[in-house]
UniProtKB/TrEMBL annotation:
Keywords: Cell membrane, Membrane, Transmembrane, Transmembrane helix, Transport. Gene3D superfamilies: MetI-like. It is a multi-pass membrane protein. This is ABC transporter permease subunit. It is found in: Cell membrane.
Length: 224
């Protein structure tokens, strides 16, 4: 079979997948990647949430700074990885920073768009009750733009995961990205494809879980 060493048979991939799921080393590296991605999403997403609310709530600031987010958003974030290494070292910190930077832009832009879509009547109601800025954020802004916020974090999670895995392939001794590049260097193609399948499945599960946050209550728990 042509290219059988590069694209192994499905049976070989299935055997490698079973072997992978039975390996304790796999779960240690899985935890490392999930932890780094979760921290990246919390840090990058939290900063993006703040920036998005500020830019979306101010026409002047939005016009002044939002174009820069659109310009920098599509930039390959891997070019910043050497800077992350200088700032945070070669440990997990640089991978978390890479993931946080990657997810920042889609979340911030989605939140800014959601802020501008909030009906003005809701904002006036909150102001009429003399709500503080913190109360406006938690009681008015976030509930009113739940869907764009969740969609932004859903997209941000995928990009954060890509950023973390990509960083792990460059300079790391743990994580799923490290395992992928390690098997590639060993030319263990079945194990590499098995890892890719696992990463794809985990991404789909996480994406489905986050998407459920925007589903109507009747669809999530049944109508009562």
């Amino acid at each position: 079979m042509l290219y059988q060493d590069v694209v192994p048979p499905l049976q070989a991939i299935a055997v490698a997948l079973i072997r992978l799921l039975g390996s304790g080393d796999f779960y240690a590296n899985l935890w490392a990647s999930l932890y780094e991605t979760a921290v990246a999403l919390v840090v990058g997403g939290g900063a993006a949430l703040f920036v998005g609310i500020v830019l979306g709530g101010s026409r002047f600031l939005g016009r002044a700074f939002e174009p820069y987010l659109y310009y920098l958003g599509p930039t390959p974030k891997i070019i910043f990885f050497p800077i992350m290494i200088m700032w945070f070292g070669v440990g997990p910190g640089s991978k978390m920073a890479m993931g946080a930077l990657s997810c920042f832009f889609p979340v911030a832009l989605s939140v800014a768009v959601g802020m501008r879509a909030i009906p003005p009547i809701l904002i006036r109601v909150g102001q009429s009750f003399r709500a503080s800025q913190a109360q406006m954020v938690t009681k008015v802004y976030l509930p009113a733009m739940r869907e764009p916020v969740v969609n932004g974090f859903r997209l941000g999670f995928g990009i954060a995961l890509i950023g973390v895995l990509l960083a792990e392939t460059k300079l790391s001794n743990q994580g799923l990205g490290f395992l992928v590049i390690q098997n590639y260097q060993r030319f263990d193609m079945p194990a590499m494809y098995a890892l890719i399948i696992v990463i794809f499945a985990l991404s789909m599960l996480a994406n489905a879980g986050i998407s459920r946050l925007t589903a109507p209550r009747s669809r999530r728990g049944g109508a009562h």
